[in-house]
Structure formats: structure tokens, C-alpha cells
Write a sequence for this structure.
């Protein structure tokens, strides 16, 4: 599977937002794309924090950063689910 270029992803997300705003997302593809794009963004932060934590000897500052990233991803999941459900 090929990763889309930055401009391709930006265009796809803009199109998805347009479809959602104009109630044209009949098969919920735009909803899924927007959800997974945000989820991916949050999980990339978790991955980055985990890599720093492991790279720098599992220090307390890096551990705290990792815990914050995980909590943030969990909270975003809850808020995202509620917001997308309300949009339907």
C-alpha cells in the first residue's frame, strides 16, 4: 500500500470535510477518513514519545511525556467518537 503524498492527503481531507459539511457522505467514507487521520495523528505522538522514552534510557521526563501522549490519544478517541456521532 502506498502512502499518499502530503498534498494528496491534504486534498483528500479537504474533500472529506466538504462531503461531511454538505451531507454527501452516503457511505461514510469521509467520516472514516477524517476519523482515521485524527487517530493516526494522535498515535504518531504516542509512537514518538515511546521512541524517545526508550532511546533516552527510560527516564522519568520521557515516561511522563509518553503517559501524557497516551492519555491524550485516549481522550481524543472519546471526544472524536462523540463528535462524529453527533454530526450524523
Amino acid at each position: 500500500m502506498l502512502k499518499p503524498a502530503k498534498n494528496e492527503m491534504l486534498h483528500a481531507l479537504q474533500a472529506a470535510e466538504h462531503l461531511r459539511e454538505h451531507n454527501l457522505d452516503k457511505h461514510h467514507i469521509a467520516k472514516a477518513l477524517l476519523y482515521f487521520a485524527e487517530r493516526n495523528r494522535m498515535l504518531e505522538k504516542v509512537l514518538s514519545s515511546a521512541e524517545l522514552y526508550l532511546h533516552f534510557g527510560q527516564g522519568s521526563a520521557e515516561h511522563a511525556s509518553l503517559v501524557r501522549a497516551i492519555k491524550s490519544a485516549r481522550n481524543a478517541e472519546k471526544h472524536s467518537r462523540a463528535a462524529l456521532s453527533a454530526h450524523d
